[in-house]
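Much of what follows relies on a compact textual record of a protein's fold. A complete example follows; check for yourself that the lines match position by position.
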Amino acid sequence: MRGSWRSKLTSSLFVLPYFVCFALFLLYPLASGIVLSFQDYDMLGSREFIGLENYKNIFTPGTLIHDLFVRGLSGTFKFVIYSVPFLVIVGLALALLVNALSTRVQGFYRTIFFMPYAISATVMATIWMRVFDTDTGFLNILLDKMGKAGPHIGWLNDTPWVWIALVFCTIWWTVGFNMIIFINGLNEVPEELYEAARLDGANAWHRLIHITLPSIRSISTVVLIMTIIASFNVFAQPFLMTRGGPGYETTVLLMNIFAVAYGQHQGGAASAMAIVLGLIMMVVSTVIYRLLSGRRG
């Protein structure tokens, strides 16, 4: 009994640092945000409990908070729809490509494709703003040298080019993370399945469809849900590269939450908007997980 008690104590001590960090950096901010969402907080120290007033304003047409929320949510949904399929498919394609290489060079290409993920948002935005600049950007200069006639493309100023630019730079910046997860999943697929399929005359496409994809379905679900959540939390790319333009086309919800909190000093309203965004992400992620789980069944 004494040994069992000591073993439990030792296990608890190993878990304790994680639990402290979890409570300090996740549970406490979450609880504080929920409490703040029921208050009129002007970010200068004044607090007043107002119940559900902030949430009512979000869902009441004609209020400023409602307009900012709907406009930002529209931009966020557009980014999710445009970016998530490419982030998942390109991540899987890179994983398949790297996994097909010889083991001597796999590490090199993993590093090359993952490296952009390690750089900061500011550096990423600076690089791609130089590439997509209308007048002096590398891409438009390259198009000129290739003989393209007509005015320069406003990659960061006009639709639909602005979405193409944002999605492309997001793929370059973050797809390496998905690639690494897919590679780990591919490494768990038994090689005997591929050997048996080759003996039966299955080509590469059939092996992909009937062996690889079914074997990594759970990993693919995890990647899809994580990518959706990350895309819902988009902020740096439109904030740094387009400032939400042209007009409000690329204004995403986190930008408007930031504006409400620090521009209008309405911390309670901003917290309520963030809580609703979190609930939307939970609902979307749950629905997708249930759909994919049902399809597996």
Observations:
- The chain has a mean pLDDT of 91.
- Residues 64-99 form the longest helix (36 residues).
- Residues 1-27 form one domain.
